[in-house]
Design a protein that fits this description.
This protein has 485 residues and is of the alpha+beta class. The protein has 2 domains: 331 residues, Outer membrane efflux proteins (OEP) (Up-down Bundle); 120 residues, no CATH class. A hairpin with a 4-residue loop joins strand 5 and strand 6. The protein starts with a helix and ends with a strand. Its main location: membrane. InterPro entries: OMP_efflux (IPR003423), TolC-like (IPR051906). It is found in: Cell outer membrane. GO terms for molecular function: efflux transmembrane transporter activity; porin activity.
Length: 485
């Protein structure tokens, strides 16, 4: 008999589990939903695309400091036309010409970051064909090496070398923050569906309880132990429960569709969410949170970048407003001939030295105004960054305090949920025994339901604050490690 009883209990439990969790139902936890959203949501793909764009911009920046090999030319360069020719007596005649003037130039250049100059090497070959006179000439620069140096000018290469790495680091941290923001949004969709799921469970439970109590009340009414008003009140509660089920089913369907759409869920199986619990033994110290935020956040990098950009603007205003000069020097060989081999037979030396400059004589204070404007903007940036840093620190401390407070509140709501459920069971038993009015039972109904909803809302606030704290610090406090891609 004992074995038979165990088998009956086992089969009843199995049937009950199949009833609660039918086939085709996938049970998901909050971390699983978050990871799905981070991997396959549209927001995740957008963040990845933005990150990839910044990566290629970074490679473009790096290429500015590497040698550049360029081949350019005119091939062919045929002309057939009339051209103006001045005669010995000063008159002008238009003579027909037909010629080809082709050229090829291969140049290798390297920017010098420290000075802003450029060193280069070049080789050139030019061919001229006069078709009217059936004459061909070649001109060549076998090799030439030169250096071009701006004098007193703004050195963009030097400043980009300071700022662009910060921008790239900032973009990588922004990508991590975007993923954590996806976690925050996932948390909202998760708990919206979870609350709808709990509301449906509450409505179904209330309907069953109300039906049971109504049957008991009808039996008591037939025995003259209660009034018709109580029967009507319970019938009204029954109608309310039925309406609540209809509304809860609609809300659950909508919230499920929203969750599936956001996390990129393409499986046809039904989703059932598991109520998450508080992270056990998790203590967040404000000092630790601030240290990690200053080390990991994109905002912390942006503070340094903004100050450097302000300094660069001042340097550019000063460099562009004064004496601007460029010194160019070239040393090489050149030659001409009727054939290509002649070009490389005893080529002649070629030297070029050139200084280009422009000096503003009268600009009516334009140069000074530009410089002062940049200096004032630099001060404004410093004040803005200082204010942003204060807000940054305050936000971290506020979020840590809020997280600890919500953890304590979660304990209270969980206790209230347990007490309200127990109180309702006692009220139900007292009503069956005739020691409680229908009004008090209805109040106990409402308190039980509200306590359960309050517990879910408290869980949502707790986990939402936790994911917000991860976003603000890019640190996983649960596993004690930095958040990595």
């Amino acid at each position: 008999m004992k074995h038979i009883l165990y088998i009956i209990i086992f089969l009843a439990g199995l049937l009950n589990s199949r009833r609660l969790y039918p086939q085709g139902t996938v049970r998901l936890r909050l971390p699983e939903v978050v990871e799905m959203a981070k991997d396959q949501s549209i927001s995740a793909r957008q963040a990845s695309t933005t990150k990839e764009t910044k990566y290629w911009e970074w490679l473009t920046f790096l290429s500015n400091y590497k040698p550049q090999l360029i081949l350019n030319g005119n091939l062919p360069a045929f002309t057939s036309s009339f051209t103006q020719v001045v005669q010995p007596d000063g008159t002008v005649q238009f003579q027909p010409v037909r010629y080809n003037n082709s050229s090829l130039t291969l140049s290798l250049s390297q920017s010098v970051m420290q000075t802003g100059g450029q060193i280069y090497a070049t080789t050139q070959l030019q061919r001229f064909d006069d078709f009217d006179r059936k004459n061909t000439l070649y001109n060549s620069t076998p090799i030439a090496i030169g250096y071009q140096q701006p004098l007193f000018k703004f050195n963009a290469l030097k400043w980009d070398r300071k700022i662009e790495p910060l921008k790239y680091d900032e973009s990588r941290q922004t990508f991590l923050e975007s993923r954590e923001q996806i976690a925050q949004k996932s948390n909202e969709f998760f708990f919206a569906m979870l609350l709808a799921q709990v509301n449906l469970q509450i409505a179904e439970t209330n309907l069953n309880n109300t039906e049971t109590i109504l049957k008991i009340a009808e039996e008591k009414f037939s025995l003259g132990k209660n009034t018709r008003n109580e029967i009507l009140q319970l019938q009204l509660e029954l109608l309310k429960s039925q309406k609540s089920i209809m509304k809860a089913k609609r809300d659950l369907e909508i919230s499920t569709l929203n969750l599936k759409a956001y996390i990129g869920w393409k499986n046809a199986d039904k989703i059932e969410l598991i109520v998450p619990e508080r992270i056990s033994k998790l203590t967040v110290l404000p000092k630790k949170a601030l240290e990690e935020a200053l080390e990991n956040r994109s905002d912390a990098i942006a503070f340094r970048r903004q100050l450097l950009e302000a300094e660069r603007a001042v340097a550019k205003a000063i460099g562009d407003n004064g004496l601007n000069a460029t010194l160019t020097a070239t040393l090489g060989f050149s030659n001409r001939g009727a054939t290509i081999p002649e070009l490389y037979n005893q080529p002649k030396s070629q030297e070029t030295v050139q200084l280009e400059f422009d000096i503003p004589i009268i600009d009516w204070g334009r140069s000074k105004s530009r410089t002062k404007t940049a200096e004032v903007q630099k001060k404004l940036t410093e004040y803005s960054v200082e204010q942003a840093r204060q807000n940054f620190n305050q936000e971290i401390y506020t979020q840590v305090t809020l997280f600890e407070m919500l953890g304590e509140q979660l304990n209270l709501t969980a206790q209230a949920d347990s007490i309200a459920s127990e109180k309702y069971q006692i009220a139900r038993e007292r009503y069956v025994l005739g020691n409680l009015s229908i009004t008090d039972l209805s109040i106990s109904f409402q308190e039980k339901d509200q306590a359960k909803r309050d517990n879910i809302n408290a869980l949502q606030d707790y986990w939402g604050t936790y994911y917000k704290l991860r976003t603000l610090t890019l640190y996983d406090f649960e596993n004690q490690r930095k958040i990595e891609p």
